[in-house]
UniProtKB/TrEMBL annotation:
GO terms for molecular function: ATP binding; DNA binding. PANTHER family: STRUCTURAL MAINTENANCE OF CHROMOSOMES SMC FAMILY MEMBER. It comes from Candidatus Desantisbacteria bacterium CG_4_10_14_0_8_um_filter_48_22. Signal peptide: none annotated. This is Chromosome segregation protein SMC. Residues 39-297 form the RecF/RecN/SMC N-terminal domain. It is found in: Cytoplasm. One of its GO terms (cellular component) is cytoplasm.
């Protein structure tokens, strides 16, 4: 009887254990079901949130497109993301704040100049035109500078050649007029012949070498005549006009002057204004200006010939 009681108890214990295990399993299933239900609720809430966020994001993007002509999708695509996809770290509040800042900056800039593109194109064309003109002027300036250099080089060469010829002629004619002595002309600045001055030094027979300003009037006049004929001899012209060039000369020097004049008359024609009788005697044709009536001039011409023996 005791054994049967123990068996009965053991049977109940086993039944209790099985029931308890089954209950625990059911409770676990119940808890799992509750968790699943909670997850489903959370999932539904998250889906609702996602829809709200998407709508808010779309509204912001639409506002950016309409108000600011700004396409966020293009920016996202330029950053290597799929066009139209929202970045994972996108925050609507931050985007709205950024949009407000951009709006304020645009308002500070002012109204949009609708003709700015046309004006830019016009200014660009003007700039290109002026640029071409500047390049042309620069090229012309370079060519002109080259031409000026060539002209200056040629002028220096010709001037130097002419000066050397005049220098030789001057020394020769001076010695002929003074019947001796010496004279020379030289440049004050040989390195710049086109802008240099000319100095004259002369040494009449029996005198020391002097600057032309230290000579007497007659000596200075003969020296100047020597230079004049030296230039004329270097490049003769059809005629030469002289106005009272013999005024400072005495009779002896007048004879020297007229002798030189006759010698050069073989090369050219000389027209000389003079009051000196000796110079008049050397002329081939003599023209006199008289005033028989007040305010009325009269020209009298005399052709000078060989003297007739008496």
């Amino acid at each position: 009887e005791a054994d049967s009681g123990k068996q009965e108890i053991q049977k109940y214990e086993e039944a209790y254990t099985g029931t308890r295990d089954a209950l625990m399993k059911e409770e676990e299933k119940l808890r799992e079901m509750r968790r699943t239900k909670g997850n489903e609720e959370n999932l539904r809430q998250l889906e609702v949130k996602e829809i709200e966020f998407r709508l808010e994001t779309e509204n912001i993007m639409q506002k950016l497109r309409q108000d600011y002509n700004f396409d966020p999708a293009a920016v996202v695509q330029s950053e290597g993301q799929e066009a139209g996809a929202v970045p994972q770290d996108f925050v609507p509040e931050a985007a709205e704040e950024q949009a407000m800042l951009l709006r304020e900056r645009i308002e500070r800039i002012g109204e949009v100049n609708l003709v700015a593109v046309d004006e830019y194109q016009r200014l660009k064309e003007r700039y290109l035109f002026l640029k071409d003109q500047t390049e042309d002027l620069s090229g012309a300036e370079t060519n002109l500078n080259r031409i000026v250099e060539e002209i200056e080089k040629e002028c220096k060469s010709r001037f130097t050649q002419a000066f050397e010829k005049i220098k030789e002629n001057f020394e020769s004619i001076y010695q002929k007029l003074f019947e001796g002595g010496s004279a020379r002309i030289f440049l004050t600045n040989p390195d710049n012949p086109l802008e240099t001055g000319i100095e004259i030094e002369a040494q009449p027979p029996g005198k020391t070498l002097r600057n032309i300003m230290q000579l007497s009037d007659g000596e200075r006049c003969l020296t100047a005549i020597s230079l004049l004929f030296a230039i004329f001899l270097a490049k003769p012209s059809p005629f030469c006009f002289m106005d009272e060039i013999d005024a400072p000369l005495d009779e002896t020097n007048i004879l020297k002057f007229t002798k030189l004049l006759k010698e050069f008359s073989r090369l050219s024609q000389f027209i000389v204004i003079t009051h000196n009788k000796r110079t008049m005697e050397a002329a081939n044709i003599l023209y006199g200006i008289t005033m028989e009536e007040v305010g009325v001039s009269k020209i009298v011409s005399v052709k000078m010939g060989e003297p007739v023996p008496v």
